[in-house]
Design brief:
Structural class: alpha+beta
Distance between the termini: 145 Å
Organism: Rhizophagus irregularis
Helix content: 10-25%
Number of helices: 12
Protein name: SbsA Ig-like domain-containing protein
Bound molecules: 2-acetamido-2-deoxy-beta-D-glucopyranose
Keywords: Membrane, Signal, Transmembrane, Transmembrane helix
């Protein structure tokens, strides 16, 4: 590799007259005892300082003291409430690292026994409270003794992924374990492990997180490698090769090692070395402090930056020039800034006491961005200093002033990334902070380069201000009909469900996962957009139309039905409660507006009804819109929150959500038909009443009603009887038994009349077929027989001279029917309506006619009794008159 061809020497370190970030606030913290800062951990809204009290050259006091620095400047005192073995406090074996954004990890060795010494990791919360203690690995024994040097834990930058534990297994092999998540004992779970080999014995390595839970592993091959454990400083060495491997612990793969730099220039050595990357940039880079030793023994130093992609291909090498640099670099650090970019800090020794700290802000690609204007009164007298930043836009520097105090100097943090915190994203629709109309169904994202879809998700959340974001839709990036790309491949259009933005005046945000999108040319996965960057609001008002309470049906899948049946009886109602709660979250809607009723069966699937109450206040969605949204959410459940809850995931997507139509809406034709029927009968009644006022013409209604009721009973048994468990048998019994009894009764009444009533017999001889017909019809209700005597419409056939006795039989027979037919049937109808979820004409009409008939009978019985009472009264009156 010809190095000089890569050199693009640009003057980057301008002499800035006025530093950009110059207003500093200082807080001095006095320690009452001799405590010095050993390390700091940046938890975004707070910073944890690890304090130690040195005892002698090699050991510190066996206690882990913490100071918690909050964003508002308040400092709390804490300590880790778990005692790790004392030997860890000598030679700096134990280490503390951040874990996600609320925890600390303490890496330590449990014993000094060569046979059993093992690494453990202690998990504590940020205040030092013990959570768990997890075994990691045995301590390597190299050359007959325990070797703990170079063992480290690397935290991932974001909370989604875990940590990488690395240790020298032998002189030339580094073994790693990837750990993430907590098991039921709250121990950290070991997910995967592997090995990386080194070119030089104990060659130093760095591990640094990349995107999607992957890490880059950098090592270099050099005779005078900077090694914490083996101190050597021979500036004549010329062999220097940097290797990079790309570890994918979740996917269980490794790419590399790739050589990214190889020095062939004589008398050039590398003094210090840092590498950086951000999730945001497509590449990583390393900065090397080069030391060229001239013949006159005066060494000259400069910084060299090497940029490379995850594939190992180096695309840029440049030299930061313009930097006077003859001093000893004690410390070189690269700090990832919250709003993008880096702070590169160099601690140089200018004379024996005073150290000189210099800082430079770099952008995401590692290029010069600005100088860091340090406080003018800054004196870094110790080697310790720490840089950090809060997510409130403050950057700070912590220095140890003396043994009893330390100082925090803070200033504003430069905002290097764009508002999406992702330099690849150019703009979006909706724009950050903009308003979109509710039910917007397209969003689009424009990138700064041609892109293509990859695999991870685009996820839309509603921010309900209570801190719990509501998932609205999650769309996997793999190409589908939801997506389309613009002609230049730079804009992605996404069709979202209309139900996604369904709340007016609500806050929404969209999260793009890392590797949802790839660079079209290099195929490199691109970083996404984190939560709370792409925020916007919906505007518009709800359709102010009021929609009354309504209901609809949905179905459980075959699996869901099976799950429900296998639940113990007492868990079944709990399941529905949970289902209701989850539906309320998925729509989203106030849970008090929903009610679920069980169940009907259709083709082995449970069908449930959901009642939706009308909205209580203006900001809520009306019932009709809720029904429309719910249907869409269920039909598109793959990407909607319906599939996110384990209960709602049992809902059948193909069935959707069907509104149970308003009864009168759906059955208006049936009802019109019935009305026409009633009017027709009424007209007929009117006509015949006018012509033959003497007849009991009202029987025409009773007759129609009784026949209709019977027809409906039969239809009901045939069509609906098997829809609800346990309805069929009783309805058959309460239909067949009364019918049979009625027929027997009517036959015996007729027979009795024939034999005992001469007038009737005479009439009967002329009208046998009519009598036969009515005897059978009387099976529906014995009162039908009364028609024979009614002279309805003046038809002479209907003037049968029935005896008073027979009339009384009919009366009592009909009274019996009340208990064996009408009341039981009404009860069955009511039970049925209560147990079913769908309205239908047949059960409704059956219920209606049963009720009318029953009411009619009861009322007529009451009248009859009154008449009877009156007769008795009159008789007794008469007898008293006679008596007096
Ligand atoms: C720290 O100590 C110095 C000198 O002893 C004193 O001037 C300063 O007020 C103290 N600061 C605090 C915050 O106690
Ligand atoms: C430092 O102190 C520890 C604990 O008191 C002691 O075991 C160790 O020998 C001391 N080391 C030196 C170098 O004095
Ligand atoms: C962030 O917190 C610091 C306290 O450490 C405070 O001084 C600063 O004003 C805060 N910055 C913003 C932008 O709120
Ligand atoms: C250290 O841990 C190892 C592995 O769990 C165990 O075998 C050993 O007994 C432990 N030693 C001590 C002193 O606890
Ligand atoms: C291992 O031991 C051998 C012989 O004692 C010694 O030459 C070698 O330098 C040692 N290696 C390390 C890495 O300590
Ligand atoms: C977006 O793209 C335009 C045109 O290519 C460019 O001028 C602009 O700087 C880009 N904006 C961002 C924020 O990247
Ligand atoms: C983004 O989407 C909106 C709404 O669908 C559309 O009007 C607009 O033209 C799109 N913008 C681009 C740059 O394609
Ligand atoms: C993407 O979303 C699906 C569900 O829609 C989920 O199962 C998957 O885990 C998500 N992928 C990532 C990387 O979050
Ligand atoms: C966009 O991508 C498609 C498919 O990957 C490709 O055929 C087309 O040439 C690309 N267009 C541009 C302008 O890069
Ligand atoms: C859903 O998950 C919760 C908690 O994870 C569990 O308690 C519940 O039993 C699950 N319900 C179903 C229907 O699987």
């Amino acid at each position: 590799m010809n190095l000089s061809s890569y050199f693009i020497t640009i003057a980057i370190f301008f002499l800035l007259i006025k530093p950009l970030y110059s207003s500093w606030n200082n807080i001095i913290y006095n320690e009452t005892e001799r405590l010095v800062i050993a390390q700091t951990f940046d938890l975004r809204d707070k910073t944890i300082l690890h304090m130690t009290r040195p005892i002698n050259e090699t050991c510190v006091e066996a206690k882990i003291d913490l100071r918690i620095l909050h964003q508002n400047g308040i400092i709390e005192v804490a300590s880790i409430d778990y005692q790790i073995p004392e030997h860890n406090f000598c030679n700096g074996i134990f280490q503390i690292k951040r874990y996600q954004l609320n925890y600390l990890l303490v890496l330590y060795v449990n014993s000094t026994d060569i046979e059993s010494a093992s690494y453990y990791v202690l998990l504590v919360d940020y205040e030092g409270k013990f959570i768990s203690n997890t075994y990691l690995a045995p301590v390597s024994v190299i050359n007959g003794s325990l070797y703990t040097c170079g063992t480290t834990i690397t935290s991932y930058t974001t909370e989604e992924y875990g940590i990488l534990f690395t240790t020298y297994e032998s002189e030339t092999v580094v073994s790693w374990s990837y750990l993430d998540g907590l098991d039921d004992k709250r121990n950290i779970i070991k997910i995967n492990n592997g090995k990386q080999s080194l070119k030089t014995p104990f060659g130093p390595y760095f591990v640094s997180p990349r995107i999607e839970g992957n890490f880059i592993f950098i090592t270099y091959d050099s005779m005078n490698a900077e090694n914490k454990c083996v101190e050597s400083n021979d500036p004549t060495d010329i062999r220097f090769i940097v290797y990079v491997s790309y570890l994918k612990p979740i996917m269980n793969g490794v790419d590399g090692p790739f050589i990214i730099y190889q020095s062939t220039i004589p008398h050039l050595s590398v003094d210090k070395f840092v590498c950086g990357n951000t999730r945001m940039s497509m590449s990583s880079f390393c900065i090397l402090v080069m030391n060229s030793v001239k013949a006159n023994k005066k060494s000259k130093k400069h910084l060299l930056k090497i940029s490379f992609q995850d594939s190992g291909s180096v695309f840029n090498i440049e030299k930061y020039s313009n930097l006077k640099f003859d001093d000893n670099v004690i410390k070189l650090e690269l700090y990832n800034l919250y709003y993008g970019g880096f702070l590169l800090s160099l601690l140089k020794r200018t004379d024996k006491i005073i150290n000189n700290l210099q800082g430079t802000i770099l952008n995401n690609d590692g290029n010069y961005y600005s100088n860091w204007g340090l406080p003018t009164d800054l004196k870094v007298t110790q080697e310790f200093y720490a840089i950090g930043d809060f997510n409130n836009g403050t950057m700070y520097l912590i220095v140890q002033e003396d043994e009893f105090s330390w100082k925090i100097s803070s200033s504003n943090l430069p905002r290097i990334s764009n508002d999406y915190n992702n330099p690849c994203v150019n703009k979006t629709f909706p724009l950050i902070g903009s308003n979109v109309w509710i039910s917007t169904s397209q969003i689009n994202i424009t990138y700064n380069m041609p892109v293509t879809l990859s695999i991870n998700n685009f996820t839309i959340y509603q921010d309900d201000n209570n801190g719990v974001p509501i998932l609205r839709q999650s769309i996997p990036g793999n190409p589908s009909k939801v997506f389309s790309l613009s002609n230049d491949n730079r804009t992605i259009h996404i069709n979202v469900l209309e139900s996604t933005f369904n709340k007016p005046n609500a806050n929404y945000y969209i999260v793009i996962d890392d590797n949802a999108v790839k660079d079209l040319i290099s195929n490199q996965p691109l970083a996404g957009v984190g939560k709370n960057y792409w925020n916007f609001e919906t505007s518009g008002i709800n359709d102010d139309k009021f929609a009354d309470d309504s209901s609809g049906t949905f179905s459980l899948t075959a699996d869901g039905t099976k799950y429900y049946y296998n639940l113990p009886q007492d868990r079944k109602s709990e399941f529905f409660l949970q289902l209701k709660a989850d539906l309320a979250k998925a729509i989203p809607i106030d849970i008090n507006r929903l009610d679920i009723k069980c169940c009907e069966f259709d083709n082995g699937q449970i069908i449930l009804i959901l009642f939706i109450k009308c909205k209580m206040n203006k900001n809520e969605r009306n019932v009709i819109d809720v029904i429309k949204d719910l249907d869409m959410l269920i039909r598109e459940k793959e990407t909607s929150p319906i599939s996110w809850f384990n209960t709602t995931n049992f809902i059948d997507a193909t069935f959707g959500f069907k509104q149970t139509h308003d009864f009168f809406d759906c059955y208006k034709f049936h009802i019109i038909g019935i009305l026409i029927g009633i009017i027709t009968i009424g007209l007929i009644y009117y006509c015949i009443k006018k012509k033959y006022p003497k007849g009991k013409n009202i029987f025409i209604f009773k007759f129609s009603l009784i026949l209709l009721d019977f027809a409906l009973d039969i239809t009901f048994i045939l069509t609906k009887g098997n829809k609800v468990n346990g309805i069929l048998i009783p309805s058959i019994i309460f239909c067949v038994v009364p019918t049979t009894i009625n027929i027997i009764l009517s036959i015996s009444i007729v027979l009795q009349e024939i034999t005992k009533n001469k007038n009737f017999y005479k009439w009967f001889k002329n009208n046998t077929s009519i009598v036969a017909l009515f005897t059978i019809l009387a099976g529906t209700d014995i009162e039908i027989l009364n028609i024979l005597t009614s002279q309805v419409a003046g038809i002479m056939i209907f003037n049968a001279p029935i005896s008073v006795k027979a009339e009384s039989y009919i009366f009592w027979g009909s009274f019996l029917g009340l208990f064996i037919e009408d009341i039981p049937q009404l009860i069955i109808q009511v039970i049925y309506i209560n147990l079913t979820v769908t309205y239908d004409t047949i059960p409704f009409l059956t219920l209606l006619t049963s009720a009318i008939i029953l009411a009619n009978k009861i009322v007529s019985r009451i009248y009859y009794s009154i008449i009877q009472l009156n007769i008795k009264k009159r008789m007794s009156n008469m007898s008293s008159i006679v008596g007096s």
